[in-house]
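INFO batch 0412 | record 1 of 1 | parsing
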Amino acid sequence: MPTTPDQPHLNGAFYGPPIQPKSKSYNRPGRRGGGGGCNPLTCCFSCICSCVLNLIFQILITVAIFLAVIGLIFWFLFRPNVPKFHVDDVTLTKFTLSPTNDTLYYNLAVNMTFRNPNRRLGIYYDTIEANALYHGRRFSTADVQGFYLGHKKENNVTAVFKGEQVVRFSGNERSKYDSEKNDGDVYKIDLKLRLKIRFKVWWAKTPKFKPRFDCDLKVPLSSKGKVSSAQFERTKCDFDW
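INFO prediction complete | emitting tokens
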């Protein structure tokens, strides 16, 4: 029997051929990724925007708080009150609505009292616009000369409405005119005041305000040869929202 060649003698365990270690590779992160990196310019811009918005927000909050505090101080020091207006007397010598067309002939004079109830505030009446309306239809406008009214002062003002105006009355409104004409010649005329005013505080003046006031009048006709038995009653004008 043939004999096999002698095998080399193995000392201990046989581990096989040696394994070479893997080489490490390093990848340079790209501009838009690579391990969550951030472009320095983009990061800087985002940071600046965030800081600017935060600063603007803080400035707005500070200004709002400052104005609120100033407003409270102003209120407690001066306690501003709304101006007061009364219609003391009216004279209506003509108020005729043509039966053939919509022309209204009128002659109306309104005497008013402007009162400043404030103790420490003066009022500049820069613009005084008086509008006369009949059943919601404006038929005339009068501009009154502006003036300054000191604290706790009054001033008498007269607005005159005279002329003729085409007013498109509905059938119901014409019926109301006929009813008032036959019922003692007392007409429901509205006087609306549109103002531009400024308050004076010591040497300073506030910005302009534009309040409106509404005066609901019942005006008797007093023409030559005919005087209504009704008497006009002094009327307070209300703040018109």
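INFO post-check: Confidence is low (pLDDT under 50) at residues 31-35.
INFO record closed
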